[in-house]
């Protein structure tokens, strides 16, 4: 038993996590279609994908909240398929705050320790330490219903961490919060996670959030992982059109594919991902790979938005094709202004064009 051993919260060592060909069916519906994922100790992986692709199911399977139909789940090399939830050494935070509203922050955090029969004095000390870790030491006595959404999620995080788990699972923990709090709290989660060294799987449907916080991002689609890589790898070298379009903004530009290259607006571009048959395609071109230049394809400005250091401008080509172009904020363009475009020439993913 570790309940009475007094190790500081900062000495948690993250576990390895390995999902191998995991299948989960709900009736006739396949929620996980052979999903495989390996995580290093202390690694922060974001599981990113559209609603319904199986993210929550993957997390619940790993936590032991769902039985799987096939495949293996290992934590520190030990098969945990038959290990119950409370013995998997996992902490979880959900989208909804899921705190007891009539209990104080302190009592909410103590709850898991009470279940484990940790003596009262140690319970109090550890809960206080855990609340301190998430920056809420001063609000320990507040009832959950007296806290803001962001504060409630901090309490939920403190509660998940107080048992000193070696794996942390977060299921869209920020999606109920407003934009500014979301960004603050995701940075806070990352800081605490790094400090503790706890292996973390963070589920989100928000690609910007995933790229911002994770060491690696696993892009999920229809119960499978389509690609896993660092944020940079996914953004610059998407292996499939789905990943190219889901991660970051892209423009669909008609082009002709021939002999492994695609010609778009008169520029020949290399292909990313697996080779494709020759023919008509859409090339998926990032806004920053289209340049406003002194000569090139004529276009007209139809909208522009200021993004701080950058500006994103919508333009319309003579054939009606609309594109997003990204450029320095200092270059300011009027609506209706005539511009010319060229391509930087970076490699692109393509999808067939009907
Ligand atoms: P995500 O979290 O990515 O939005 P989920 O893992 O919740 O996706 O769901 C994956 C698929 O499994 C969806 O089609 C969903 O409708 C289905 N599903 C999830 N939970 C259940 C359940 N308890 N019973 C039946 N179908 C479910
Ligand atoms: Mg979900």
Question: What do these coordinates show?
Answer:
- This protein is α+β, with helices and mostly antiparallel strands and 354 residues long.
- It has two domains: 233 residues, Rossmann fold, CATH 3.40.50; 100 residues, OB fold (Dihydrolipoamide Acetyltransferase, E2P) (Beta Barrel).
- It is built from eight helices and 19 strands.
- Strands 6-7-8-3-9-10 form a six-stranded mixed β-sheet, with helices on both faces. It has a five-stranded antiparallel β-sheet with strand order 13-12-11-14-19. The chain has a four-stranded antiparallel β-sheet with strand order 2-1-4-5, covered by helices on one side.
- Strand 12 and strand 13 form a beta hairpin.
- It binds adenosine-5'-diphosphate and magnesium ion.
- The site of magnesium ion (MG) has 2 residues, from helix 1.
List the helices and strands and how they pair.
Layout: E1 17-26, E2 29-39, E3 44-48, H1 55-63, E4 70-75, E5 78-79, E6 90-93, H2 105-115, H3 120-133, H4 149-161, E7 167-171, H5 179-196, E8 199-204, H6 207-213, E9 216-221, E10 224-229, H7 231-236, H8 241-246, E11 251-258, E12 261-264, E13 267-270, E14 279-285, E15 290-306, E16 310-317, E17 322-328, E18 338-343, E19 349-352
Parallel strand pairs: 3-8, 3-9, 6-7, 7-8
Antiparallel strand pairs: 1-2, 1-4, 4-5, 9-10, 11-12, 11-14, 12-13, 14-19, 15-16, 15-18, 16-17
